[in-house]
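2024-03-11 09:14:02 INFO receiving multi-entity request
2024-03-11 09:14:02 INFO entity count = two
2024-03-11 09:14:03 INFO echoing inputs for audit
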Amino acid sequence: MKLIARPIDLEVGGKNIVIMNKEDVESLGLHALDRVRLRYNEKELTAIVDETAKFTIKGEIIANDDVTNFFKLKGGEHLEVFPEKELESIVFIKQKLAGVRLDYSKFKKIVEDVVNKKLSTIELSAFVTALYTRGISIDEAASLSKAMVETGRKIKFPGKIICDKHSIGGIPGDKTSLVLVPIVAVAGLTIPKSSSKAITSPCGTAERMEVLASVNLSLEEIVEVVEKTNACLVWGGALDLAPADDIFIQIEYPLGIDPLLLPSIMSKKKAIGANYVIIDIPIGREAKIKTVEDAHELADDFIELGRKLGIHVACGITLGEQPLGHAIGPALEAREALLTLQGKGPKDLVEKATVLCDILFNETGQKNHGVALEILKSGKAEKKMREIIEAQGGNPEIKPDDIVIGSKFADIKSEIDGKVLWIKNSAIVSIARTAGAPKDRGAGIYLKAKVGDSVRKGDTLFTIYSDNYMRLNDAIYLAEELKPMVIGKHFEEKMLLEKVFSEVPARKTFMLER
Amino acid sequence: MKLIARPIDLEVGGKNIVIMNKEDVESLGLHALDRVRLRYNEKELTAIVDETAKFTIKGEIIANDDVTNFFKLKGGEHLEVFPEKELESIVFIKQKLAGVRLDYSKFKKIVEDVVNKKLSTIELSAFVTALYTRGISIDEAASLSKAMVETGRKIKFPGKIICDKHSIGGIPGDKTSLVLVPIVAVAGLTIPKSSSKAITSPCGTAERMEVLASVNLSLEEIVEVVEKTNACLVWGGALDLAPADDIFIQIEYPLGIDPLLLPSIMSKKKAIGANYVIIDIPIGREAKIKTVEDAHELADDFIELGRKLGIHVACGITLGEQPLGHAIGPALEAREALLTLQGKGPKDLVEKATVLCDILFNETGQKNHGVALEILKSGKAEKKMREIIEAQGGNPEIKPDDIVIGSKFADIKSEIDGKVLWIKNSAIVSIARTAGAPKDRGAGIYLKAKVGDSVRKGDTLFTIYSDNYMRLNDAIYLAEELKPMVIGKHFEEKMLLEKVFSEVPARKTFMLER
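2024-03-11 09:21:47 INFO inference complete, emitting structure
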């Protein structure tokens, strides 16, 4: 069937979509969400069919951004349209749904179809939920990781020991990477650190670093920066390293599940050529991991997966009961990181960054415990950080006070005398985001007291910063409602955390396989 | 935030979608696929947000068909747009993903959000796959069925015994309903039969009946027809009976899974007010159910679910190794059904229809075995069918020869002497669909031989009918490739059905709950 192309500027994110008239779809023997093969100018592409009775007429085919760009359509071209056979990847997704283990070749086929934008949202969603409900074995995680690496770009730094660091996250104010990366680089190791942006948190490492320098570097620019400084701190989102991951994340986010945690992290590390990786697993009541036992189990999986991918992995299980340092929000955190590199940082941040460095040094064979703290104290890490900032187009002379913090602020005060019994991380996150973080770089929270500190009635517990009064007021209102810091006389006095009701696991009824 | 509306004719099927500029989405603190609450003219609606950098400008909001129709938008209206809180139903979907049993109130919330078009494809897809991988208990199936009934329209026929029949399907040529419904009505029972259209088969009951009369009746018209004739044979797709089901089916189809089988069928029966239901479970190598044991298990589930919904259910496990009767395709099947009502039908069809009727008569307390066959032989069922055809706007005088069959046809002949050892149902389906069924009413297949029949070299095995030569040629080509009838000397000579390789079930790695 030949149809006339009409391009529209519709971005759907990782899918080739065409919209055809219902009658044309029926004439091809297809239904909505089936696939067609398009041919034009000796190029071929597989796309998913949406059908409409009105939006387009018979004989016309609407192409979304991805299809338009592939064929360089201007409108009016005659595309040849054929029904596409069922994709093999769909068969493998159904096997995973049914609880079957998949091997490398099957994951490869699925991931290829993902990055070639052939899979519909329904199929992507089924794959992600199947991984979640059926689980993945370490062998599967390795196969999936390899498939994700092979379907994207890769960086190589020949002859160097490449290190990397990752935190599984969830701790507000965790600016460890900004302190750790320059220390590692000073020690003579190479650390091309790429980070993500915040999705549900008030600040990601990319946003922290962006206060000091550009983080939107191309792969070629990264290589240049790393050759110059032994390190970088960049945004990893547009580098096409394990690009399938970016598509999977779009599915995981609305569901709030993360079955690809292991392959997701490790495929990015493999694509950047890492030999040694330190993984930070913070634990705490409100952290992603709640217990030391769970953290050990996860650490074992990371180490085992690393072994299968040829990467030495070490994990640090760290305390995550409260925010790290005092600052939450891009500008506030960049300032605190810079102060820390100048020897004026909060104890918990210094401790965490240097301890993780020492584990990494030990792993790479430099067994000198305490080296990291020495490097930090010597001022060499600060100097290295300024080199990195300069190489990434920032101002290497920047002082902590040069960093612009939100001009509107409000102090939240204690209503009683007592001690900080605990800090609700999730409340801190909500308040900082309501104040405008991470979009408004100056917005955030600065904690004046942390767990165990004594406070008097009327003392400031924390300050909320924002760029505008409306957001500041919303954040104050939320702070009063959520009360992120619990103040009391003794740690023993508030024993009930929350009430739990039992939920019964399901027994299955007969299930029909179609 | 106030945005200016631009309606576009984009149908997405069961979802309220708005497309907003990326900057406006960020200003609301939202991401793509989050939800907004829209307010205009004192009406409110929840919609899913798609974001774009180009397709719409800042300050504008594009509304799809569902949103446009709800607010009666013409373009240029100022809609108030608020970020929507997380839906409670998403929490319940995540519980199901995690393997928790859901109760009625949770299913009700999910199904309400489904029919109110609040859930994105990702969330719908996660719910359907969670039901598939985690399974549903009978209590859950009952809760889900009730929720699906309560969120749609219902029919009542006060003071009558309402019967219904359903086949779980998969057998080409299964026109049993066209014979069973008039027999049941003659016996004094009421049977308002609604059916679906073919999705992957060459013909559904709605298409068969449509050859003889209109099947697109409103609920009011159905009540009229049933009051007149005690029966009807209509299309159930647009009646708004358990409408959530139609949305779930859109997700199930591309994945080829059917976890809602039980609630799907039983909610439609409950909504139509059925007291007694006979369910046909055909078994066979290529049927949906392969073994008698599986069929029993499924039958028990249906009966138990019926009990919880206040419906008496009986099941018939029937032979489904080959097509039923000789005819496959709308016109061919309608003709065979009419001939059967005139006493000139194939044995298997007569046997199946009357046996299922007798089970139903027994269930309702009329314990006379053989009554159904008597009614059929007496000609009363044919007379009743003509009443139904007339009430539904068809020609009550129609003769089998009046039904127009595809004008182009070809005989497929045996290449050897022997017996029909088996018939591949899936191949018959593919060939009939390639010939044009169900869209071309006259297209299909007429079997000249069935399993066990002796054939000589050169005898016609079956005839393919079509409305055009191109499709006929494609179907002939496919028939030669697939060889749907296997001819041999003895049943014992072809022992290998297919090769099977073992697949190992998955062990899970650590799974992080976000």
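2024-03-11 09:21:48 INFO post-check: Chain B touches chain A through 79 residues (CB under 8 Å).
2024-03-11 09:21:48 INFO post-check: Residues 414 and 458 of chain B are 5 Å apart (CA to CA).
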